[in-house]
Sequence to fold (1144 residues):
Amino acid sequence: MFQYLVKRILMLFPLFLGITLITFVVIHLAPGEPVEMQSAMNPKVSAAARQRLREFYGLDKPLYVQYGRWLSHLAKLDFGRSFAPDNRPVIDKISERIPITLSLNVIALILEFGLALPIGIIAAVHRDTLVDRGISVFVFLGFAVPTFWLALLCMYFFGVLHPVLPISGLHSLGSEKLSGFGRFADLARHLVLPISIATFGSLAGLSRYMRSTMVEVLSQDYITTARAKGVKERVVIYKHALKNALLPVITLLGFSLPGLIGGSVIFETIFAIPGMGQLFYQGVMARDYPLVLGILVIGACLTLVGNLLADLGYAVADPRIRHGKG
Amino acid sequence: MKQFRWFFLLILLLSAGCTEREPAAVVKPRPQAGTPVHGDALVTGSIGEPSNLIPILSSDSASSDISGLVYDGLVRYDKNLNLEGDLAQSWEVAPDGLTITFHLRKGVKWHDGAPFTSRDVMYTYRVTIDPKTPTAYAEDFKQVKSASAPDPYTFRVVYDKPFAPALASWGMPVLPAHLLEGKDITKSPLSRKPVGTGPFIFKEWIPGQKVTLDANPDYWEGAPYLDRYIYRIIPDNSTMYMELKGGTLDMMGLSPVQYQRQTNTPEFLSRFNKYRYPASAYTYLGYNLRLPLFQDRRVRQAITSAINKQEIIQGVLFGMGQVARGPYKPGTWAWNPNIRDFDYNPARAMQLLREAGWVMGKDGILVKDGKRFSFTILTNQGNDQRIKAAQIMQQRLKAVGIDVKIRVLEWASFLTNFIDTGRFEAVLLGWTIGQDPDLYDVWHSSKTGPKELNFIRFKNPEVDRLIVEGRGTFDQNKRRECYYKIQDILAFEQPYTFLYVPDALPAVSSRFRGIEPAPAGIMHNLIKWWVPKAEQRY
Amino acid sequence: MSGYYKDFWRRFLNNRLAAAGLLLVIVLFVLSVFAPWITPFNPDRIDAWHVLLPPSGTHWFGTDELGRDVFTRVVFGAQVSLKVGFVAVGIAVVVGTVIGLVAGFYGGWVDSLLMRLVDIMLCFPTFFLILAVIAMLEPSIWYIMMIIGLTGWMGVARLVRAEVLSLKGRDFVLAARVLGASDLRIIFRHILPNALSPVLVSATLGVAGAILTESALSFLGIGVQPPTPSWGNILTAGKDYIEFAWWLSLFPGLAILVTVLSYNLVGEGIRDALDPRQKK
Fold:
């Protein structure tokens, strides 16, 4: 187990390097110098200021030197300062928004697993029946509907026509004056729409995966044997089959993160949630290169960490790895 | 609210947001009787987040919405768009027009309690012209030969030659010297926590959510009736409209469709007052005059004749705008009401094109010297109205044999790769119309360099002469004469096809009283807005 | 082989959802191909005096904010949206297949290197990458298709590699090798045809995903640019009128929904039909 852990952590370094390399290349696809872009937005940027920027990014040097410099800044968690007129350190701008995006996505992830797994199991158990087909159509509908459209329809229905839920944002005005519980309830009401829509949209992938794994397990010999021995169907399904079918699902946990974070651009824009997705979109549109670089690297590293945790979870759950044969 | 002559705002005239502050004539007053009382808050929304609350460092409309309420200038425009004293109680212009002496208001305090003096004005002037300050507003102040502050309540500036926009340029917000002097302004905490002298005191800014301002009880003109001004950041326009309908937003600028088709229900009208007046902005199609194709005046006149401006106003603005024929807002003193340019007349367009040597080709597109008449209109992404207008023009021009392509570009690359390098054929853009009619930056032939605003390279000695003459005198009649003549020349030359002046269409919750629509719009007397006790919400 | 396909078809069509999905996919495809003959209107024909008309006998789906016929635009939009879907997936499949084949066939450090690349690409929130590239280059349909393709090949690469690894040791491949077949010949004659079916499934799902991605980009204003109609940009234009001109968003929204749903059902159907365990 320890060996596995060390190996797994050592693997992070080349992956991290790869992430930074790809991010760097993507940004340099854009025509023109980053500094040029900033001065384009502000014709009066002084020559001295431009020179300082050129030096920070080493823009007069060849690309590989620039990459090296940027990496060494990164190592010190120095993402540079935003090109936006506020000129704030990128790390500050990101860190005030990451908690929002991350916690929303974690809640959505928990809901997703909490709903998709039972749905997938039910579909597998009732394979090829009306129940199975109904579930298929339902989960695929969630995947197929353009999220911003569904979001707007829900906002109009629940916020304007039948005003039971707040339309956008995270807090009501004046919620500062509420008690601790009141504030929490207010926040929760604001999160109902974005989180349900995010969850509805992500059910398909996981529930279909669960269904096919479960179908596969149910067709295996030991299940047939158990059934033949007269073990009750419930016990067969929920004790024998489920345990084995759940194992591979754990690794999916880590991989669900990038999709959710990517989707947060849309959710946060439409629901006016001040998270990282919204920040990224604004940064991209304003060509705020340091910010875009920073969010890409941090976003990818979050997944990296998510994957690591998922793998460790898998290792803990799977006896073969647990006993050091991984 | 203050109307600064912030000329570079025009660069950023992207779309929504800036309309509420715009001046103009009136619509639909409602009886607003009663005795004003204090209390309640105004909640408004913005697509964009402010970038920097030190006004000289930012040029986006969200930042200036906020800093306009927190800071004061020496002068400001009143509701009828005449200059009046703000932090300056009075001023004198010397007979030669070269020296202006401001007498500052006494007893004004910064929000942190420090007294306001001429030192603050001096600092603001110096930091704005400091080459190390990355500001877009230095140009007007660079005309100043010398500035002095003989005593704490007097500030004097001397110009080389008479400079008509000078007075208005002192509407620039005054910054607190005691908090900024000797420090690097680009790193100042004031960019996120401004301290001014204005009617509202900055309270908090929650990034991505809202900016809250509290009434300034010590404001020199008296405390605002409203206790609070809340500026919510809502990045999507449809969401913002739903918030308005849901009652969680008190004010927003409506789109023409919303104004015309979605808000005429008795239910909406009982909860909101709608206002309508021309915005201080126009949209135009500009031709790159470096290109031989567009150097022929007849070609430019023909394109204007082929375009139906009324149709564009109908299609894009649902009729909520006026035809533009020059760079001024209809009804303002510099606007020439007698201008005639080229009305929609396809036959005349074809006639002009024939005269210019174009003949109809087999594919229905005009040809001259073996070349098809085809050009690309560039416009910026994110402005639906412009993209629609381009599509309508495309169809009309096709009818006279001109093939138009439309290319929508992201803003930054639009500026760097196309405007600055001159690699464009025609652009569809807009300018805001400044309060002062000076046209130097956009139309003078000296302003055709890189990153300057006469990027179509319009060069006309007569226009140059008239511009210089117009800004060199304080006599409004003389100035008007100059600007009338310039409009005549532009209407004949058609370096732009001026398209339309849109209407600003704000809607405000009907619980607010004291709103007084005027040529300056509705926001000029925000401090007098009030809500009857029974209707107060916050 | 024909027996195998007959069997496959029987199993596929037995799955009623998949069969319905296939029918819809075909109908939409035909509609988009014959768009100019289906509707009497020109998709770009503007009529500023007849904007936002509700559905009627003349305009089945009403007119949009510039007076264009929405039905016509949705039908022509199908061409664009399906093109985005197919080309993007085509790119993803080609890149993914090549990388998967090379990694699986040659193994060793080549394999490790390529698979690490896959791991790295999988770490990025794909939509962030797409957004960054499109916004910084420009929102042209070609860039959109390319970047969706170039960020979507990893799944295919893994599938193909796994398939190659399992086939490499099989008798018919070994036999071919003994008979002196070249690497390329083995890859193209023996391995590729067998790896195709899982790729087909993933491609079908990919088309659906690409159509959705384009609509999300359109929502942010950097999808396929007007006047070219795509379902995404028609829907986005309609979102401002949800309340009173519902037809402008309903029809493109439904078009996306039905298409994505159908492609998913078809993809599932193919997977199940290929899966021997499905045999009853």
